Amino acid sequence: QVQLVESGGGLVQAGGSLRLSCAASGITFNIKTMGWYRQAPGRERELVAAFTTDTSTNYADFVKGRFIISRDNAKNTVYLQMNALKPEDTATYYCNVRSWPMRTNYWGQGTQVTVSS
């Protein structure tokens, strides 16, 4: 059974930083992508950043230069370092793994990030 456990969310002032972690377990298939999405109230879930290969990454335009995705393969963990946070970054952040070739999406339970102005 796939489990994605996120941690690291919280309340921070604008301009501050947070680091999210996602520990993965139970993955017995090939991974297409692994990364982070977010969903704010009343909005659709959107990609934040993801690994598209072992080393290649894809970032949403609105986080380029501010957020950094990284991974520790030995710990099966992916991280999201979020810097220069803005109030509009407030959302629930979800860890995602997409399998290959079935392209099944697996999601974590989400971690709340709130940025105050």
Describe the structure.
The protein has 117 residues and is mainly beta. The protein contains no helices and eleven strands. Strands 2, 4, 5, 6, 9, 10 and 11 form a seven-stranded mixed beta sheet that branches. The N and C termini lie far apart (40 Å). The mean pLDDT is 95.
Average pLDDT value?
A: 95
Per DSSP E runs of 2 or more residues, the count of β-strands stands at: 11
Radius of gyration: 14 Å
- Approximately what portion of the residues adopt beta-strand conformation? over 45%
Unreliable sequence segments: none
**Assembly context of the chains:** single chain
Helix-and-strand structural type: mainly beta
- The succession of helices and strands, N to C, reads EEEEEEEEEEE
Number of helices: 0
Spatial separation of the terminal alpha carbons: 40 Å
Tertiary shape = globular
Helix % is: under 10%
Q: Characterize the biggest β-sheet.
A: 7 strands, mixed
